[in-house]
Amino acid sequence: MAPATKSSGRTGTPRDPSRRALLAGASALATAGALGAAGCSRVASASGVKGGDLLDRLRAQGVARLGIAGEIPFGYIDANGELTGEGPEVARIIFRRLGVERVQPVPTEFGSLIPGLNSQQFDVVSAGMYINPERCGQVIFSEPDHQMLDAFVVRKGNPKGLNDYADVIRAKARFATGSGYAQIEHAVEAGYPESDIVIVPDQVAGMNAVEAGRVDVFAGTSLTTREVVKKSRGTEATEPFAARVDGKPRVDGAGFAFRRTETRLRDAFNAELRKMKESGELLRVLRPFGFTKVEMTDLTMRELCRA
């Protein structure tokens, strides 16, 4: 892979998410992206109907296109070339109940998900996207389906003692995170210079950068860091922690994003998601991807948009 570069710029799986599967998934991501682009470069344009008519059009065509970012466990193409992950599996169930038989992946980089959604390259973002005020100004979100703390990927034994952002600053550690990740904001809020942050495409690249010694620490969600180091001999994940934003501990919630005109689709999606939460089905669907009761949430979209 190419060396990590700096930028001023985010914030499990039923099959064993081994490093081989992670790398194969990344390879399949590029292939699927080409196929998705060839199959349909744009979804149908908005109709101007109040609340949007996308749900009707998806029912008629029988397929919903999901924007994913190739990130395990949230939404990715596995080693067998199949779409899976937390977001796609929940979306697949909900869309079927809404009368849409299939979902189709449209892979892109995480930072391109909202622009891709708003330029109608796909119908919904299904990638474990954190709900925050800035994004709420660009898209509308479902209710969150899970919550998440931060954690680090560090060298085995954590030689620099990096357990939170204050430790990173104290140790003058070389810090990396993913393109568009919320952890950029969390590090800057703690006082780490944004211009010094090394931006990598995803958690696999982050782990590789730590293993190779290009950086001392990679920050991601507690779940992604926990999963990515499982097959790594040279790295480990730290204990989860709440980043401090505006002086308060931050627990982030993630959901599905829709174009602002498509409130009817979002509301129908929310109704089915609520049923899955209340019945316990949501946790049963997410558990194979490494989610636990700790990641289940009572946070609401409205409070996260105001945060």
TrEMBL record:
Domain spans labelled Solute-binding protein family 3/N-terminal: 63-293
SUPFAM superfamilies membership: Periplasmic binding protein-like II
Keyword Signal: yes
InterPro entries named in the record: Ectoine_EhuB, Solute-binding_3/MltF_N, TAT_signal
Keywords: Signal
PROSITE patterns documented for this protein: TAT
Record carries keyword Signal: yes
Alphabetical list of Pfam families matching this protein: SBP_bac_3 (PF00497)
NCBIfam families (alphabetical): ectoine_ehuB (TIGR02995)
PANTHER family recorded: ARGININE-BINDING EXTRACELLULAR PROTEIN ARTP (PTHR35936:SF17), MEMBRANE-BOUND LYTIC MUREIN TRANSGLYCOSYLASE F (PTHR35936)
Protein's name according to its UniProt entry: Ectoine/hydroxyectoine ABC transporter substrate-binding protein EhuB
